[in-house]
Each structure stands twice: as C-alpha cells, then as structure tokens.
Amino acid sequence: MSNSLAVTIFHNPACGTSRNTLALIRHTGIEPTIVEYLRSPPDSNTLQTLLQAMGMGARALLREKEKIWPELLAASGKPVEDWTEAELVAAMVTHPVLLNRPVVVTSWGTRLCRPSEAVLDILPVPQAGPFTKEDGEMVLDAAGNRVR
C-alpha cells in the first residue's frame, strides 16, 4: 500500500534515531523522499527554511557532540553563545555533520524527530499495527496506537 502524502526526511543512515524515524514513516505505507544530508547537504536557504518551519533557532539544531565542533569553536575564539544565527547556519552548511537529525517535512509540519516517535505528530496517517525500535523499545501497540 502506498500513501500519497509527501514526506521528506533529512536522513543519516548511520544514526539509529534516523533509521527508526524512517521505519516509522514507511510503517504507514509512505515511501518518503530521502535526503542523505551528509552526501547532499542543504544550502543556507534550505536550512533557514527548515529552521523557520520548525520554529527554532540554529543553535537548537546544532549537534555539538561532533568532534569538529570544538575545533570550530577554538578557531573562532569565541563561545557558542556569541555565534550569530548566520554563523551557525554557515557552519552547518559547511560541516553538515553538525546538523542534528533526522528532520522530517510533511504538509502537517516540519520536525526534528528526536525521539524518533516525534514523527507521529506530523504523520496523520494510521499506523499499520505494532512497531518496535531497533533497541527493542515498543512504540506502537498491535492496534497502531502509541504505547506512551
């Protein structure tokens, strides 16, 4: 079964949260457009559009755990609090590994889907039965309802 709802996921296949989010989308029968953002990074305009749609600033989308981040901070000579939105966006465009993931876009909204089940808020399509994450955590029961 294929659903006609247009869904785009900015995806990193090496990330468990991103894989679980993609699986939840597919669990509805939707095959999303997959943007592997490490291979095809969003440009500045796309990133700013996503941030605006999510109602968040660039700092909220910044993945500070990546080893390049402390190097960029040291090279800039200033703390993250002093970075402007434009500087943060430029850093994420230049180093897409700094983008937190996954980001999902549907006509019902755009979300940073952490945890992965946050995607259910912007997928108003019935789930096809139970769903369990890769780590064994049950997300949906046999009727397709959220467990918690």
State the separation between the terminal residues, measured CA to CA: 27 Å
CATH structural architecture: 3-Layer(aba) Sandwich
The CATH class assignment is: Alpha Beta
**How many helix segments?**
5
Topology-level CATH name = Glutaredoxin
| Overall geometry | elongated
Q: CATH homologous superfamily - what is it?
A: Glutaredoxin
Give the averaged pLDDT, no decimals.
93
What is the count of β-strands?
A: 6
Structure write-up:
The chain is α+β, with helices and mostly antiparallel strands. The chain has one domain (8-140): 3-Layer(aba) Sandwich (Glutaredoxin). It contains 5 helices and 6 strands. It has helices spanning 16-27, 44-54, 58-61, 68-76, 85-94, and strands at 8-11, 33-36, 103-106, 109-112, 131-132, 138-140. The strands form 2 sheets. A 4-stranded mixed sheet has the order 2-1-3-4. β1 (8-11), α1 (16-27) and β2 form a beta-alpha-beta unit.
